[in-house]
Design a protein that fits this description.
The complex is a heterodimer of chains A (about 270) and B (about 350). Chain A contains 13 helices and no strands. In chain A, helix 7 packs across helix 9. Chain A is mainly alpha-helical and about 270 residues long. The longest helix of chain A has about 35 residues. The radius of gyration of chain A is 22 Å and the shape is globular. Chain B is an alpha/beta fold and about 350 residues long. Helices cover about 45% and strands about 20% of the residues of chain B. Chain B contains 16 helices and 11 strands. In chain B, strands 1, 2, 3, 4, 5, 6, 7, 8, 9, 10 and 11 form an 11-stranded mixed beta sheet that branches. In chain B, helix 7 crosses helix 8 and helix 9 packs across helix 10. Chain B is globular and about 65 Å long. Classes of the chains: A mainly alpha (about 270), B alpha/beta (about 350). Chains A and B meet through helix 3 and helix 11 of A and helix 3, strand 7 and helix 16 of B.
Chain lengths: ~270, ~350
Amino acid sequence: MLALVSPALLVILALIVLPVGWLAWQSIYHDGFTLENYRRVFTEDIYWRSFALTFEISLAVTVIALLLGYPVAYLANALPKGWSILILSLVVLPFWTSVLVRAYAWLALLQRTGVINQFLRYLDVISEPLALVHNTFGTVVATVHILLPFMVLPLYASMQKIPGDLMQAGASLGASPSLTFFRVFLPLSLPGVLAGCTMVFVLCLGFYITPELLGGGRTVMVSMLVSRNVELYNQFGAASAVAVVLLASVLAIFVAVSRFISLDRVLGQK
Amino acid sequence: MTTKLGYALLGAVALSATAAGAAEQITFVSQGGAYQQAQTVAILDPSAKKLGITINQDSIPDAWPAIKTQVGSGKPIWDVVDTPTGNCLRGGEQGLIEKLDFSKIPNGAAMPEVYRSPYSVSYEFYSSVLSYSQKTFPKDAPNSWADFWDVKKFPGRRALRNHPFATLEAALMADGVAPDKLYPLDVDRAFRKLEEIKPHITVWWTSGAQSAQLLNDGEVDMEMAWNGRVSAVAKEGAKVAFTYNQGILQSTSLCILKGAPNLDTAVKFLNEAVDPVHQANLPLHIDYGPGNPKAFETGVIKPERAAQLPSEPANASKQALMSYAWWSSPAGEAAEKRWASFMQK
């Protein structure tokens, strides 16, 4: 057994454990042992602001993705096979477009001279174009779009495992459709909700290109601080300390979530 | 016919390959794209021919991390790098860049002193200029940074670069500092002035492509942008223009990596690359100005073309020359760090 998994373990060791370890080492060792990089992260305002903003955006994106994704997954689950395949392919389709292209597409839609503002002005709903992009709003919109599949797929997977007879049983006992949904279906789909939310939240924490292009320069997420620190301090340690703190927060989230649900489930194994 | 031509070419390649095997060579690094292609035609190929050397090319958008790791490893692969002048200076101070012996670089020695440093010579110039939409401002366009800051007289959406370079200079000029009296920068005063305009800035752009898009799509009515980006947008047919008045003249320079494998050839090449005639050929292929001002005396650049270039003497006299020495000083580095907290407040 060990012989069988050892190649995989070696790959993980070489490609993940060693580089991440080296990165972490750089953050505390530069011409001698130093905590300077961490002192900076924990005392300077800009880091707190960025971490707070990053968690706020991730939370907003997660909630919106859940509200948008749940009905989609529900529909895909409830409809006959042909329809559900169509819905799921539409959900997955954007995966094949680069994140960069999608960011620019949102720019074309949201900017002052963009499609939405032009249309609203044509309808005379607004007289001045709305500020839909180059701010946090535009960043959230585009990020939700990119991360939506990571919400819909786990939801759909967990809904698939809910036996249809349970709903019929509820109905036969006289419960209204909404009561069966809230008392039977929703609780049974919660593992999928938790799995989807964790995936979206964690992925969003590390977003870089989208806030960079659509944030207008003001939406400084943690990943942007990482890249800025490489430039500013001319050594990797200053940047990797930020990355280590972010990694630690992600791990903390996973640990917290794993108290409610087995990690296998979050990662879609069971 | 084609076969014959093919054989002839093959022979030529084989010949030059044997010649190269015996001859000296260097590895030259620039930033790629249309810019490096323009150099290849204007400067690199003619220099290689004249010196009888082979120039191997490499390109990288940001050379600084590579310079650090290559020299740090003790065995650099590159010889000559074309990189923003600030990199040459801080590299020199950190022992990553060779000190130049100007007695072996007569073309460099003949350049004005502000165009060179102990570690580098200017290679080409670009400028951070005030650009605007001619649709919004068909006449009475903004013509100075004071105009850019005047939101009453010139209403409209604005963008600046999300970086302190040139932005602090512009703020000080808006506050009345003369272009030739900027350095050392009064950083507090510059940030105070920037706070004034901050609420009126729609976008803080991070890449040249983004600045071009903003102007092209009419997303902003005026912005600071690099002259080459604005003229490219104008060439595409957009109604945009810019002024060199109070532009901030910036440069990339050539410098040689410490312990470069072909040091002597690298020095020879460096001298040849800033030769006035090669330098004069560069703006015939791309919208950047020659690093050596003597290029304008060669007659290669027609007066109409010269008038469009950032480093043409009359244009240069309207602008501020960026001091990379100040930006790589401790005060400059502190100002760069302060930028992030300014942006997030």
